[in-house]
Structures are given as C-alpha cells and as structure tokens.
Amino acid sequence: MAHRVVWSPRAADDLVSIAEYIEADSPAYAEAVVRKIIRQAQILRDFPRAGRRVAEFSDDNTRELIVFIYRVIYRIEADQVLVAAIVHGKRILG
Q: What is the pLDDT along the chain (94 residues), one digit of tens a residue?
C-alpha cells in the first residue's frame, strides 16, 4: 500500500532555507540538493521504513533519511508519511 508523503510547514521552510543558504555560493548545487531531498522523500511512498530510526527518539515510527549532510526527519502514520523537518547532520535533536 502506497503512503501519501506530506510536508509539514516546518520541513518546507527548512528546504527553502537550505536552498537559499547554498544558493549564495552555487545556484546549481542548491538546485541539485533540493531535487535530491525531494526525490528521496518520494521514495517513502512505497518504502516508508527505508530510513533508519532517529537515535534521539525511542519511537520506531520516527525515522530519518540522510541526504548529503542533511537529516530528513519523518514520521510514519497510518496512510501517510509526514516529513517533519530537515536539519543539518551534525545537529542533535532534543
């Protein structure tokens, strides 16, 4: 059963912020990073458990994909995957 991938407002804002930050140095690289993050998130439609469990949380349904240096944090729900946030890989969630 395919899940619907839904982006939270925070995740959408995170993606825009990442693009703007990278774009200052390289518009082409910014576009490549954003495209890859979106493509990887779309894989979750068919493979919601593709990512690993987020170490900072004990919930098996809160997972992450690593894309370049970013952590795409998402939560598996009944019939959808909610992309909750995109954070730098060195950031510890708390």
A: 799 999 999 999 999 999 999 999 999 999 999 999 999 999 999 999 999 999 888 899 999 999 999 999 999 999 999 999 999 887 767 6
pTM for the model stands at 0.92
15 and 22 Cβ atoms separated by less than 8 Å:
no
Beta bridge pairs of residue 5: 81
CATH code at position 29: 3.30.2310.20
Domain count, the chain: 1
Q: Which two tokens stand for residue 69?
A: 């240096």
